[in-house]
Specification:
heterodimer; A: about 220 residues; mainly alpha; Arc Repressor Mutant, subunit A; 10 helices; about 0% strand
C-alpha cells in the first residue's frame, strides 16, 4: 500500500543531486561530478530500464534488450556526463530518453550487421581467410552509422535548446487531468490524491490514462 | 475501468511508492490488443515521472544491479588510456597483435602488415600519441575486435608531471651555457630529411581526420 509522502521531498532530492553535479563539474572537480552523476544514474536506473523496454519491445530480443540497456547506461555514465547541457531534471530525462532511443537503434544495427556477417561466414567456401573482407563490411557499417549519428546528435542538441516538454504540455491539459498529473509528478500517493481532489481511485486511474494519452500526442507534436 | 487504466494506475502507484514496478511485467499482464497503448502510456509516464526517493535498502539493491555495475565498470575502464584498453579488448577477442594487423591492413587495402603490427605494439606500449591516430583506424579496430567505437576512443591526453627545465645547484653556469648553445644550434639547423608519410603512416600519425 502506498503511503502519503512529503511531495516537496520527492520533487527536490534529484534536482539537488543534479545541482551538486553541475557545481562540481563547473569547478573542475571530476571526482565530485562523477559521484553525483552516478547517484543520479542509480536513482534513475529503473527509468532507463523501462525506457529501453518500451522503446525496443517490438524490435529487439531479450538479449538484445540487455545489450541496449548496457549501451545506454555506458553512454550515460561516460558520455552524457560531459555533454549534458541542461540544468533541470526535466531536461536530464529528455536527454536520457533521446540517448535510449539511439542506444536501441545502435543495438539493432549492430545485430543486423553481425547477422549479415555470420550468414556470409556460414556460406559454403567461406572461412577465416575472409575475415578481412567482413571486417571491412563491419567497418563500412560503422562509418555509415557514424555519419548518421552525427546528424542524430545534431538533432539531439537542438532538443536541449527547447523549452522543457512538461512546461509546454501540462498547461494544455484540462484542469482535472492537470491536477492529477501534477500530484503524480510530486509523488503524492493515490489515497491522498483521492482525498485532495474528492474523487474515487477509479477516477484517478482513468485520469492518469487519459492524461498519458494526451501527453503522448503532445510529445509527438513536440518532437516534430 | 479498462485494463489499461487499471494497469497504468497500479504502475504509477508502485513507482511513486518506490516499489520498482517492472515495465515488461506490466506489459505482459495487458491483453495482447492493448499492449501498444499501454506501452505508449508507460513511456509517457517514464518521461514525466518523478525520481522516487528510494529507501536505503532499495537503493542498495539498485546500486548492486548487475547491469548498472557492469556499465559503471565499463565506463571506468573507458577512462583508462588506450594503451590499457587495446590489449584488453584484443585478449577478449582472442587475437594476437599480428592477427589484428593482418585484418587492419586488409580493411584498408594495404599490405605492410609488419609495420601495422609495429604501430599497434607502440600503442599498447603507450609509445604513440593516440590523439594522432585516425578515427578510421579506431573504427576499424572496433570492427575487428567486436567492440563499440566508444571503447576505442583515444581518451584524454595522458598528462605527465611538470618537469623542471633548469635545476642548478652549484657551478652549473658552464654546462647550462653549453646546453643552451647546443639547443640553439639544433633549433637553427634544418630538419633531417625523412621519408614522406605513406597511407599507413597517415592512418597512425596523421590526426583524427586522416
Amino acid at each position: 500500500m502506498a503511503t502519503p509522502r512529503d511531495s516537496s521531498h520527492v520533487a527536490r532530492h534529484d534536482e539537488e543531486k543534479l545541482r551538486r553535479f553541475l557545481a562540481a563539474r563547473r569547478a573542475g572537480d571530476g571526482t565530485g561530478a562523477r559521484r553525483w552523476w552516478e547517484e543520479l544514474l542509480t536513482d534513475n536506473f529503473d527509468r532507463v530500464h523501462g525506457m529501453v523496454v518500451v522503446e525496443s519491445r517490438l524490435r529487439l530480443s531479450h538479449d538484445e534488450q540487455q545489450d541496449a540497456l548496457q549501451r545506454a547506461l555506458i553512454k550515460l555514465a561516460n558520455n552524457m556526463i560531459e555533454t549534458f547541457h541542461g540544468s533541470s531534471m526535466g531536461e536530464w530525462v529528455e536527454s536520457t530518453r533521446t540517448l535510449v532511443k539511439f542506444a536501441c537503434i545502435d543495438t539493432q544495427r549492430r545485430a543486423q550487421t553481425i547477422s549479415r556477417r555470420e550468414r556470409s561466414l556460414d556460406a559454403p567456401g567461406r572461412d577465416e581467410q575472409d575475415a578481412g573482407r567482413y571486417d571491412a563490411d563491419v567497418y563500412a557499417a560503422i562509418e555509415k552509422d557514424r555519419r548518421e549519428r552525427e546528424d542524430d546528435e545534431h538533432d539531439a542538441e537542438r532538443l536541449g535548446e527547447r523549452q522543457a516538454f512538461l512546461d509546454w504540455a501540462v498547461p494544455q491539459l484540462s484542469p482535472k487531468l492537470r491536477a492529477v498529473v501534477e500530484l503524480d509528478r510530486a509523488g503524492v500517493a493515490v489515497e491522498e490524491i483521492q482525498e485532495r481532489l474528492g474523487v474515487s481511485r477509479d477516477v484517478v486511474y482513468q485520469s492518469r490514462s487519459r492524461a498519458a494519452t494526451q501527453l503522448a500526442k503532445l510529445l509527438k507534436e513536440y518532437g516534430s | 475501468m479498462t485494463a489499461i487504466e487499471q494497469l497504468l494506475g497500479e504502475f504509477i502507484d508502485a513507482w511513486n511508492a518506490g516499489r520498482r514496478p517492472d515495465v515488461g511485467a506490466y506489459l505482459e499482464r495487458a491483453p495482447a490488443g492493448d499492449r501498444d497503448e499501454l506501452a505508449t502510456q508507460l513511456d509517457t509516464w517514464l518521461q514525466i515521472a518523478p525520481t522516487p526517493a528510494y529507501d536505503d535498502v532499495t537503493r542498495r539493491a539498485i546500486a548492486a544491479e548487475p547491469a548498472l555495475r557492469a556499465a559503471l565498470d565499463a565506463a571506468a575502464a573507458m577512462r583508462s588510456p588506450l594503451a590499457v584498453r587495446l590489449p584488453t579488448l584484443r585478449a577478449r577477442a582472442g587475437l594476437a597483435v599480428r592477427d589484428v594487423a593482418r585484418r587492419l591492413v586488409a580493411v584498408f587495402g594495404l599490405d605492410d602488415e609488419q609495420r601495422a603490427a609495429d604501430y599497434l605494439a607502440r600503442i599498447e606500449r603507450d609509445e604513440l600519441d593516440t590523439s594522432r591516430v585516425s578515427r578510421r583506424v579506431l573504427d576499424a579496430l572496433a570492427a575487428i575486435l567486436g567492440a563499440d567505437r566508444d571503447q576505442l576512443a583515444p581518451g584524454p591526453p595522458a598528462f605527465s608531471g611538470g618537469q623542471a627545465f633548469f635545476r642548478a645547484e652549484e657551478d652549473a653556469d658552464q654546462w647550462i651555457a653549453e646546453d643552451i648553445d647546443a639547443l640553439s644550434r639544433a633549433a637553427l639547423a634544418p630538419a633531417p630529411a625523412s621519408a614522406p608519410m605513406d597511407e599507413l603512416d597517415r592512418l597512425f600519425l596523421g590526426g583524427p581526420d586522416a
